[in-house]
Design goal:
Blueprint lengths: L7 H11 L6 E6 L9 E4 L5 E3 L2 E10 L21 E7 L6 E7 L11 E10 L2 E9 L10 E7 L7 E2 L34 E10 L2 E9 L13 E7 L7 E2 L14 E4 L2 E6 L8 E5 L6 E5 L8 E2 L15 E6 L7 E8 L14
Antiparallel strand pairs: 1-21, 2-4, 3-4, 4-5, 5-6, 7-8, 8-9, 9-10, 11-12, 12-13, 13-14, 15-16, 16-17, 17-18, 19-20, 20-21
Bound molecules: 3,6-anhydro-alpha-L-galactopyranose.
């Protein structure tokens, strides 16, 4: 066997040059009308859709401070996504936004979404609008189960009709007994990555089916290589409201937090941030399930919702041209910003001429 004296790093670098179409940087600018406002939280924006010349987003909105899970008062907000509703905002240019008021609000006491509705994503399909989002029922405890629900409408301005039940529930096994009933998160894991919470839904219509990507959180979570132990899953249905069947390949990531995906050439591209050994990467799965790292990126948008009315096949990053994301603030009242994806510092180099 001949030794080419090519180091492992050089081999990897050559691969990165094969995949420069996936590499990018990010710039941030204000979303006027959704800026930081003490006392009001705006977070977790959906993707941006363009309907009749107007840009639309939906986002989690709550007011007042939050106190964590253990405040001793079950009526007090735990986090700034608790006691929240989903609001709608519109813009003529993607820069200046006007709040249009609540789109989907918390349900009546006793209903599956009576505590909070939050962290939504939008799908515009066949002249209908589908909002998918997280729900939690009162009381909101450290180990409350959180599910994904859906509302649909014929117009982005509503009215929105809720599904009678959540469309995806955590894979919690009612027969499971926590080691410490007062603190089940520190108990014994059931071994399922999404047994406690299903979060961050991201819905697509692909190959004749609805594909619901989501983030799973599990009982007895511990640190995973310095980040939270977060993984993504996907579930399929013939109709948008389900029933959804989980992929046998779940979990389909070992990394990431809020889901952010877009279609490209028959496959799916994903931006994975925050948690796990592959945080801050862009990955591609030709089949939408088996993702491989294509680029390592820096300073990615958090909880981002990209602009969706694009030609996704034009380039791998067409689905990430610009969008909205959220920013945490020291005072606890997060807000929404605009991000733009930049590629002006990508050098399409000829690998033969690189001084390896
Ligand atoms: C976000 C999302 C979900 C979580 C919380 C609000 O970053 O992952 O929405 O529940 O944090």
């Amino acid at each position: 066997m001949s030794d080419t004296h090519e180091s492992a790093a050089t081999k990897r670098m050559k691969q990165y040059y094969q995949d420069t179409d996936f590499w990018c940087e990010f710039r941030y600018s204000p979303a006027y009308g959704l800026e930081h406002q003490p006392g009001v939280t705006r977070r977790d924006p959906t993707s941006v859709i363009l309907v009749d010349g107007t840009y639309h987003i939906w986002f989690t909105r709550s007011t007042g401070p939050h106190f964590g899970y253990d405040s001793g008062d079950l009526d007090k907000a735990t986090w700034n996504w608790d006691l929240a509703d989903l609001w709608h905002a519109t813009s003529p240019d993607g820069v200046h936004w006007t709040e249009q008021g609540p789109a989907v609000t918390r349900g009546e006491p006793g209903s599956y979404d009576d505590r909070s509705v939050y962290t939504a994503e939008i799908l515009h399909h066949d002249n209908k609008f589908y909002l998918v989002y997280q729900v939690v029922q009162h009381p909101y405890l450290r180990a409350s189960l959180e599910s994904i629900a859906m509302s649909s409408a014929d117009s982005p301005y509503g009215p929105w009709t809720k599904t009678p039940e959540p469309i995806l529930r955590p894979s919690f096994d009612p027969g499971w007994t926590p080691v410490d009933p007062d603190n089940p998160l520190l108990g014994e894991s059931t071994g399922r990555f999404d047994d406690l919470r299903v979060h961050d839904p991201c819905l697509f219509f692909r190959d004749g089916k609805f594909w619901l990507y989501y983030k799973g959180e599990h009982i007895a979570e511990e640190w995973n290589l310095g980040g939270r132990d977060i993984r993504w899953g996907v579930a399929f249905a013939d109709k948008p409201e389900g029933p959804y069947e989980r992929s046998p390949y779940n979990p389909i990531s070992n990394t990431g937090h809020e889901t952010l995906l877009w279609p490209h050439k028959g496959g799916m591209v994903g931006l994975l941030t925050l948690d796990g050994p592959e945080a801050n990467t862009i990955q591609y799965a030709p089949d939408g399930i088996n993702f491989e790292i294509k680029a390592y990126i820096r300073n990615p948008p958090i909880a981002a919702g990209p602009f969706r009315n694009v030609d996704f096949d034009a380039s791998p990053l067409a689905g990430l041209s610009w969008g909205m994301c959220h920013v945490a603030s020291d005072d606890g009242f997060g807000h929404i910003m605009r991000f733009d994806t930049a590629r002006d510092r990508v050098v399409q180099r000829n690998a033969q001429r690189i001084p390896f």
